């Protein structure tokens, strides 16, 4: 009898379209993705996103349904404003990369396309350790946004692809 309320809650949540944060509805037939040329942190975000979406990051392009190629990926940090003492009060992080999408037969679905993500954060000189942690969180969020952007682009490309 105690299981009924839990079961009802699960049914109601799934019926309303509730999804775990970060999960995607992958396009039909696209559950295995191979990632070529990505940094370790970007690869981790791809893997987490795919796991939350019933997908899998595979180790070989021969078993993949889509191949995502990453090129020229880098993060740059720049001081935006200075304090009276000449130290940076505010930083801007810029994450740039180019990516392309290929199908299982290595046919180009989307030619190399650039992506740029920017974030700014305040640098409190009194709390340096906390700011280092904040920068790490911001970088992770930038990688997550890049993954979401690539998946959204993949979904759009597959929706317009002739069958």
Your description of this structure?
The chain has helices spanning 3-15, 40-51, 128-160, and strands at residues 32-36, 56-58, 66-82, 88-103, 108-122. A five-stranded mixed beta sheet has the order 2-1-3-4-5. It has 163 residues and is of the alpha/beta class. Helix 2 (40-51) crosses helix 3. It has a single domain (20-160), classed as Lipoprotein like domain (Double Stranded RNA Binding Domain, 2-Layer Sandwich). The N and C termini lie far apart (49 Å). It has three helices and five strands, in the order αβαββββα. Strand 1, helix 2 and strand 2 (56-58) form a beta-alpha-beta unit. The relative contact order is 0.15. It is flat and about 60 Å long. The model is unreliable at 18-22 (pLDDT under 50). Belongs to the LptE lipoprotein family. GO terms for molecular function: lipopolysaccharide binding. Keywords: Cell outer membrane, Lipoprotein, Membrane, Palmitate, Signal.
Quickly describe the structure.
This protein has 163 residues and is an alpha/beta fold. Helices cover 36% and strands 34% of the residues.
